[in-house]
Amino acid sequence: MRAQRPRFAAAATAACLAVLLTGCAGTAATTPTEVVGTGAVTTAPAAPVAEPSPSGSPLDVTCDSIIGDDLRAEFAAQKWTSKKTPFAAGGVTLDDGLLCTWANYAVPSGNLMMFGWAPITSDQAAKMQSGLESKGWLRKDIAGVLYITEDPNQTPTVDADGFGMTYQFGDGWVTVADVKQNLLLIQRPQS
Predict the structure, then answer these.
(1) Cα–Cα distance between 150 and 139 in angstroms, integer?
(2) Rounded to a whole number, what is the distance in angstroms from the first to the last CA of the chain?
(3) Which has the closest alpha carbon to 174: 125, 113, 101, 131?
(4) Strand 3-4 relative to strand 157-158, pairing
(5) Are 82 and 100 in contact (CB under 8 A)?
(6) pTM value > 0.85
(7) Which of 54, 71, 81 has the alpha carbon at shortest distance from 184?
């Protein structure tokens, strides 16, 4: 039997999503966009957003900067801190990226959340995707967005839609979260 995310994680996800959606109020008209795999709807920015360039200089990206203030405050209230590790998957290490694992490291509980971001070239993305798929991860193309996700029958933790740890690939970037639904909480750096 697979475990569902703890109530804290669900509350944090809901609170952050509400803040993100509320922040869109009063802006220019936007187009609703389905977020792959979650069934949740969010809004696209009114103006195009420049994506980071994998060949450019590294941005100042930290565990604190890739999540919102409200989520950081919730983590602080729970005495959660982050540990930064290199962004590596499928045999590819992305030196300008990071993987952040948030937990209360003073209490052995197994409760944690992971968020990661990295700039990536198309060659690195193809190699990473192939490496993950060769280890049994599943490719999901949902509404034109590419995800590589753990086999739900092999993961101990899934979100409400049955997705475990999931990578999302965009144009020049990749993100990862402990469950697909939590990809919504990542704030990608702007170049």
Answers:
(1) 9
(2) 42
(3) 125
(4) parallel
(5) yes
(6) no
(7) 71
Q: Hey, what are 35's tokens?
A: 């977020």
Give pLDDT, residue 140: 96
Low-confidence ranges of the chain (pLDDT < 70): 1-58, 191
Interatomic CA distance for residues 135 and 75, integer angstroms: 32
Distances (CA, A) of 116 to 24, 35, 166, 190: 24, 18, 10, 15
Cα 85 from Cα 64, distance rounded (Å): 14
Please count the residues of the chain.
191
Cα-flanking dihedrals φ and ψ of residue 4, to 5°? -90, 160
Instruction: Quote the tokens at residue 50.
Output: 């420049």
Q: Which residues contact 95 (CB under 8 A, 6 or more apart)?
A: 86
What confidence score (pLDDT) does residue 93 get? Answer: 97
Please report the pLDDT score of residue 78 as a whole number. 95
pLDDT given for residue 38 in this prediction: 38
Check the CA dihedral 145-68-85-151 and report its sign.
negative
- Element (DSSP H or E) covering residue 77: helix 69-77
Instruction: Write the pLDDT tens digit of every residue in 61-87.
Output: 999 999 999 999 999 999 999 999 999
Please list, residue by residue across 162-188, b when 16 or more beta carbons sit within 10 angstroms of its beta carbon and e when fewer do: ebbbbbbbeebbbbbbbbbbbbbbbbb
Question: How high does pLDDT run on average in the chain?
Answer: 78
